[in-house]
Amino acid sequence: MATPSIHQPSQRRLTDSDDPGPNDDPEQLRLFHRWRAARSPSSVVHLDSAGAARPSRATIAAETAYLESESELGAYAAEVEAGSGLHATRARLVSLMGPGLDADDLSFHHSASAAFATLLMAWRLPAGARIGVVPSEYGSNMLVLAARALRTAVSLVDLPVDETGVIDVETLDRAGVACADAPGRIGLADLDLVVFPQVPSQRGIVQPAAAIGARCAAEGVPLVLDVAQSLGQVEVSQTAASAYIGTSRKWLCGPRGAGFLAVRKGSVDLLDIAVPSLHSTRFDRNDRPVPLPGLARLGIGEAATVSRIGLGQAVTELMDSGPSRVFARIARLAGQGRHLLDGAGGWRVREDPDSPCGIITMQPPPGTDPVAVRDRLYREDRVLASAIPVDRSRDLTGPVLRASAHVYTDPAEFERLAMGLERIAYDR
Ligand SMILES: *Cc1c(COP(=O)(O)O)cnc(C)c1O
Known about the structure:
Elements (H helix, E strand, L loop, with lengths): L25 H12 L7 E2 L2 H4 L4 H17 L1 H7 L1 H14 L9 E4 L2 H11 L7 E4 L5 H13 L3 E4 L10 H7 L1 E2 L6 E2 L6 E5 L11 H11 L3 E4 L16 E5 L11 E5 L1 H4 L12 E3 L5 E3 L13 H17 L1 H19 L6 E2 L9 E5 L6 H12 L1 E2 L1 E3 L11 E5 L7 H16 L1
Parallel strand pairs: 1-15, 3-4, 3-7, 7-8, 8-9
Antiparallel strand pairs: 2-10, 5-6, 9-10, 11-12, 13-14, 14-17, 16-17
Helix pairs in contact: 1-12, 3-4, 3-11, 5-11, 6-7, 12-14, 13-14
The structure holds pyridoxal-5'-phosphate.
């Protein structure tokens, strides 16, 4: 690991130009230039794709054109006119997820959190059921799970993980899951549901979702996979989950205000009503509320359709670039970033340098508050990074700083962050 130094920042420099490095492959370089040129110049060094990535000008143009059509035709007619485009967006999104899903298996939501809460509240679980979870579960999801567990006496059990938080498949296979309400350990087959984020918000790791998905499918245990932080930056399409939830504004580079959920046909008819409304529920002959057929039972009605239109354009750009090329570029950038950032101003990178994930998290030097440093980086250095508060996830022992680059990021921008961290450490 690099020795922290405030006197020799040049040791960490990649190059002096915009060129992302001599060993860069030309295809990745073309991709970088194309994605960069597709966006307006930014007045900040934007290293927060995991929070909200930068949409392209074409995405903004698609939204503007749609808003014009809402004014011209009225918002309902505009949505009908945009129907085939919205259908195509749903088809593209499911094609990025597990096999065997089609456009009708996906519905838009307001956010990943809202989609997760709706899905989990609708999921039928008998009293005494067990949900397999991970310590890196997203804070809001964890609250939903805890509330769900209280409501019907369901218990939450942690899947075994290694010291970096990655699910330990070997231990799971060999020794199962430790469970407070059962003597010894139980097997995966004794769980009624498994839920985890493929990539957590607060750590640059990728869960072995395909391996867990295969095991869950073999044992007939449903898996709900949170792809809010993974879809658009890592491969999701081999995961075979029963349901997925995700969001527009992170790695997919869509606008805010759109999320989605996808549920496999075999699982959808088992769902209860989560939030009753005319968009999800009807009265039966005996005046009892019953869920609408299929995925409509999770329908939300009113929403900003424009954000779905923008997401559609963003997903089209991802598909046109070739998702696997995009994923490779992001992983490579993160590797370069970890190399540059580890030790800067005494901050330590928390991931393996080669973790195949676009998220970089940094442990502060003693006595340093990541929130204050995030604010100073933005105000004084025009560098945008994220401070992750400790309540984001159970597996955090303190707040951390997060940097996340996308295809449009120049690797030299990590140097700006490293220099900012060193300057602030020196200034203290
Ligand atoms: C951001 C995030 C969510 C929530 O997404 P929203 O669209 O903000 O509700 C869920 N899970 C993970 C892992 C996230 O990083």
